[in-house]
Design a protein that fits this description.
Largest sheet: 7 strands, mixed
CATH topology of one domain: Rossmann fold
Radius of gyration: 18 Å
Order of helices and strands: HHHHEHEHEEHEHHEEHHHEEE
Structural class: alpha/beta
Strand order of the largest sheet: 3-2-1-4-5-10-6
Helix content: 40-55%
Number of strands: 10
Shape: globular
Distance between the termini: 23 Å
Amino acid sequence: MNLSSSKRFDSIASGYATSEVHSGSPTLDRLHTLLPHVDSVCDIASGAGHTGLGFAGIASRIVAVDPAPNMLAEVRRLAAQRGVAVETVEAFAESIPLATASFDLVVCRLAAHHFSDLPKAMSEMTRLAKPGGYMAIIDMEGDENPVLNALNHEIEVLHDPTHVRSYTARHWQELFAANGLEVQACENRCREIPSGLTVKRWCELGNSGDEAFHAIQDRLALTPMDELAALEITRDADGDFRLPIRTLLIFGRKSFESHA
């Protein structure tokens, strides 16, 4: 993520506070079932803070990190509404001004596909986790099939020009291994919205504009049915396409011997 993307997310922060994609999902529920008790949580590229605030009543320390000031304002507003204590830090994922080995859990949801330097961000996130602590990523999923991956990327960029790349499960597993994280679960083909989200609503949430909406609709209308099916994209009776918001969840643990 860079300054231009930070400014873009500043402009759409209020929508993230009420977004059905960001406020909850089966993947978030699954993460909670995978985790043991954690007392400190750092939510990286937090957006409006739904992921971190989901640990209210569980963790005694919740920290939200995001480069967009308006997103952090939404975190504080939602926290105040719920009576939750939260710390906010304005920073990019590639450079986080927090102490090494500070958190039981470092989590990043629906944001890593925007990072300008993912290896550096992974190194920073791993640094923040305590030895024996946990790292969890939930993000848009890339496809091993190059044709499907190219189509997916094209649609994502039309929706949001700050999109960098959606990564495959294999890529994430390699990144976890490179950072000394033992993968305990890697689940792909998850659906953030099980019933699907219309392209129109997706574009509303991203403030993509009518031009982007029509470009995505037109692109999908030209896509062979087998490719749509492989990406689990359906079409309503009124002609609007519906997306599953397909993600993966990868969850790992930092070595007890690690002090980085």
